[in-house]
Specification:
It is a single chain. The protein is α+β, with helices and mostly antiparallel strands. Helices cover 33% and strands 30% of the residues. The protein has a 5-stranded mixed sheet with strand order 1-5-4-3-2.
């Protein structure tokens, strides 16, 4: 079950122009592993996870979420920068 809070939905729509459909497509198209965001200011329980994948139209997105009791809680999603792509490519397997 995918959960997007109202506040996150507003940010996705207005700032990042990312739809729920694109997020679902990125999950479906993911071919690498999940990375944990272990930066002190971003640590959560359960841990914050992320990956980079393409939508069906080829748009690359970084999806950041928490997985809890079978629920996927979206924290954010946006087009990744080159450093995020480099990190994901290095550690995704």
């Amino acid at each position: 079950m995918l959960i997007i809070s109202e506040a996150v939905q507003i940010k996705l729509t207005t700032r990042h122009r990312v739809s729920e459909t694109e997020i679902l497509e990125a999950f479906a198209n993911r071919d690498g592993g999940l990375l944990e965001d272990n930066r002190a200011e971003n640590r959560t329980i359960p841990p914050t996870l992320w990956f980079i994948a393409e939508t069906h139209r080829g748009r690359q997105l970084k999806i950041v979420f928490i997985q809890d009791s079978g629920k996927i809680i979206i924290k954010t999603a946006y087009e990744p920068n080159q450093e995020e792509i480099r990190i994901y490519d290095k550690y995704k397997d």
